[in-house]
UniProtKB/TrEMBL annotation:
The chain holds residues 608 to 864 of 901 of the full protein. Residues 1-257 form the EAL domain. This is EAL domain-containing protein.
Length: 257
């Protein structure tokens, strides 16, 4: 399949076939949904529903990832405007994934502010998730983009913490507010002391640097209990909620049947 051509067609048609599914981020102490991570899906012209792993690399290798990122920012804000109108002050934070190439394109500040303004979303509601392994060298312009967004109230999360090659240096370089513990460490809770030690270490770094920590990939109540016991209050995973398409997500957020 010529994924790149088809993806270009989809973007040129205003994002035809592209969707964002939302996965809840839960406060384990209160069970409240405090955030939603938006995850890209693509209903390919063949009918198959594709995940990011099926087409993100292709997009990342071209300028397509920038258009895809702009589409995702706008779509996230459109969805968030709907949540805001129904959930008011309990509207969850909106977590949007940003690729390294999108950061380096130089247009991140503009894309984010335009999407927020177009849909009337307060900047404090938005969290941009950056992946360690993709985080580019922070040349002046990229750094300035991130700083301006942070001054506006937008926050930043580092995804898959512990799997990148320069994680600790990154944490002091980037304007980071939130650390996301990689699923592989969470999978080791209860059976792999090394994984547990890494999670404790990330929690200690978060506490020392005043960054919140989200555990990803929580699949069992035992993992949730272990995390809460270590004062890790924020978690995401199949045990707490699977990624859902827009209508089902909305029903989950508003408690509708
Ligand atoms: O939903 P799934 O677990 O298949 O997502 C796999 C990965 O794809 C996620 O870890 C996330 O980092 C990445 N991803 C999902 N949605 C987006 C998106 O909108 N933009 C970018 N750049 N990456 C995304
Ligand atoms: O870090 P990233 O943005 O890739 O994280 C989101 C990804 O993790 C999504 O692709 C989602 O499908 C996946 N995911 C979400 N919850 C769980 C879980 O409980 N277990 C596993 N193995 N993967 C999960
Ligand atoms: Na993410």
């Amino acid at each position: 399949i010529r994924i790149d051509g088809e993806l270009r067609d989809a973007l040129n048609a205003g994002g035809r076939g592209l969707q964002l599914w939302g996965q809840p981020i839960v406060d384990l102490a209160t069970q409240h949904v405090v955030g939603v991570e938006l995850l890209l899906r693509w209903r390919h012209p063949s009918g198959t529903l594709l995940g990011p792993g099926d087409f993100l690399d292709v997009a990342e290798d071209s300028d397509l990832v920038v258009g895809l990122g702009e589409w995702a920012l706008d779509e996230s804000c459109r969805m968030a405007a709907d949540w805001l109108s129904r959930c008011g002050s309990s509207t969850p934070e909106v977590h949007v994934n940003v690729s390294g190439r999108q950061m380096q394109s130089g247009g991140l500040h503009r894309s984010v502010t335009e999407a927020l303004e177009r849909h009337g979303i307060p900047p404090g509601l938005m969290v941009l998730e950056l992946t360690e392994t993709q985080a580019p060298t922070l040349e002046g312009a990229v750094r300035a983009d991130l700083d301006r967004l942070q001054q506006l109230g937008v926050r930043f999360a580092i995804d898959d913490v512990g799997t990148g090659y320069s994680s600790l240096a990154r944490l002091t370089e980037l304007p980071v507010d939130l650390l996301k513990v990689d699923v592989n460490f969470v999978a080791g809770i209860g059976n792999d002391p090394a994984c547990e030690a890494v999670i404790r270490g990330i929690l200690a770094i978060g506490a020392a640097l005043d960054m919140a920590v989200v555990a990803e990939g929580v699949e069992t109540p035992e993992q949730a209990t272990w995390l809460l016991d270590k004062h890790c209050r924020l978690a995401q995973g199949f045990h707490l909620g699977r990624p859902l398409p827009e209508a089902e997500l909305l029903a989950a957020l508003t408690g509708a049947p």
